[in-house]
Write a structure and sequence with these properties.
heterodimer, A: mainly alpha, 11 helices, 63% helix, disordered N terminus, B: 196 residues, alpha+beta, three-stranded antiparallel β-sheet, 9 helices, 5 strands
């Protein structure tokens, strides 16, 4: 990925990052992309520092955290806003801890550690992280169990089981497929308007009478169709060609006007 | 559910006259057949309805059947899952079964999806902001994945500011995670000891 030098990196860390990235960028990218969220990253850092979760060395952890976020940015990993929110929270806690405590509060012994809320969140999060690990194990075991193969009647009433959500999913798939088709059309060589006019003129001269509906139907894409339409308008305006219709709402025929009678 | 009940009444009219009282062995046999043909875990309630038998005796028959499979160390097992009963291969045989089916374990859920699922499973019904609160990260794409995989379902709106959508786990969740019901999940407090 082309990455412009990030100007906000005014620290030495910039060089450091660049060096690490040069070393083993893929591996690091993988590692950094693995964190499920800011709390996950924070837990990882606390473990790495072998710190006690109930007594987090907030200054050190904050520095580490910010380092990682910079690294993620440097590696072009989209850093979710939530990671930045956590960085702000950490810095806030860090600054709170630097402030001298209010003596009156100290006496009452009701001083609340600025880290408390974060610790509570971390502990709660860790539970769910462990729970997700348990789910992972369960699903792995479950994948080793197979039900019987399908029998004919299983699909008989399949449509009844479809929810609105299924229908939307199918619809989205169709839309997606169509988008792909359009992409392919764009990739194809396109006919310019002047080429189209040339083709049209040649056809009229050769066939004398050209049904515009058949002409339009030959077009392979919406874009070609639009070009063809403009070509018809253009050729009628500028050339000695006229549009005729045998009856109202009938087929429209393009005819070359014989020399002399045209304008 | 609808089509199943329909077939149920049909079967009943067929068999009601001939077998008013079955022996235990007969009941075990018919229960086995029904569990086999059902494409979803079949409940004791439904079995009892179809067979016009007491729930207790059906329950006993299922348990007996389960024991039989275990006793003879069958390659199949009768197991309770998602509130119903199912016949399936035994875990230990998965390698050979896979070799035959030529399948690999299907794509695993991402870390984010698993975490989101864990929060939903334990906190349900739960809203997106509540999930964010616990995970500390937006979970929109994880929720989308889980909905697509039918592991979670919407459970109406929470009557609070903005009426956010409530999410809960589905029957499919129980099936894919091999759970009888939600109470089979270990309590979230149990994970406290695992931390650190």
């Amino acid at each position: 990925m082309e990455q412009e030098p990030l100007e906000q990196f005014t620290f030495d860390f910039k060089k450091e990052t660049a060096e690490i990235v040069r070393g083993s960028s893929d591996e690091l990218k993988l590692k950094l992309g693995e964190f499920a969220g800011p709390l996950d990253l924070l837990l990882f850092l606390i473990r790495q520092e072998q710190a006690n979760i109930f007594d987090i060395p907030i200054a050190r952890i904050t520095d580490e955290y910010v380092k990682y976020i910079r690294l993620m940015k440097g590696l072009d990993i989209a850093v979710a806003a939530d990671f930045l929110v956590m960085a702000a929270t950490l810095i806030e806690i860090k600054s709170k801890m630097l402030l001298p405590r209010d003596p009156s509060e100290l006496e009452e012994e009701e001083f609340e550690d600025p880290r408390k809320e974060l610790v509570d969140r971390l502990l709660e999060y860790e539970q769910y992280k462990a729970a997700s690990q348990m789910l992972y194990e369960r699903t792995t075991i479950e994948q080793a169990v197979f039900g019987r193969g399908k029998i004919e009647s299983d699909d008989a009433n399949a449509e009844i089981n479809a929810s609105v959500f299924d229908i939307i999913t199918v619809f989205q798939k169709i839309l997606l497929r169509h988008r792909d088709e359009i992409k392919m059309e764009i990739a194809r060589e396109e006919i310019s308007l002047s080429d189209m006019i040339k083709t049209l003129r040649r056809r009229i001269l050769e066939e004398l009478e050209l049904n515009i509906q058949t002409f339009f139907e030959e077009m392979q894409s919406r874009r070609e169709l639009v070009t063809a339409f403009i070509a018809v308008l253009e050729i009628v305006r500028t050339d000695s060609v006229k549009l005729t219709q045998k009856k109202t709402f009938g087929e429209i025929i393009l005819k070359a006007v014989t020399n002399g009678t045209g304008n | 559910m609808e089509p199943e009940t329909k077939t149920a009444t049909e079967t009943v009219t067929h068999t009601a006259d001939e077998t008013t009282s079955r022996s235990m062995a007969e009941l075990v046999a018919i229960v086995e057949a029904l569990i086999f043909v059902a494409d979803e875990p079949i409940t004791v309630k439904l079995l009892a309805e179809v067979l016009e038998e007491e729930r207790d005796s059906v329950e006993a028959a299922v348990v007996e059947l389960q024991k039989e499979y275990e006793m003879r160390e069958s390659g199949l097992q009768i197991r309770e899952i998602a509130g119903g009963w199912q016949i399936a291969t035994r875990t230990e045989l998965h390698e050979d079964v896979r070799k035959f089916l030529k399948t690999r374990p299907s794509a695993k859920l991402s870390l984010a999806s698993l975490e989101t699922l864990a929060v939903i499973a334990y906190k349900q019904p739960v809203t997106v902001p509540e999930i964010l609160e616990i995970r500390g990260v937006q979970s929109a794409s994880a929720i989308k994945t889980l909905l697509e995989k039918r592991l979670i379902v919407t459970k109406g709106h929470k009557e609070t500011v903005g009426r956010p959508m409530l999410y809960g786990t589905s029957k499919e969740f129980l099936i894919q995670f091999g759970l009888k019901d939600l109470t089979e999940l270990p309590s979230i407090e149990d994970f406290e000891d695992l931390t650190q």
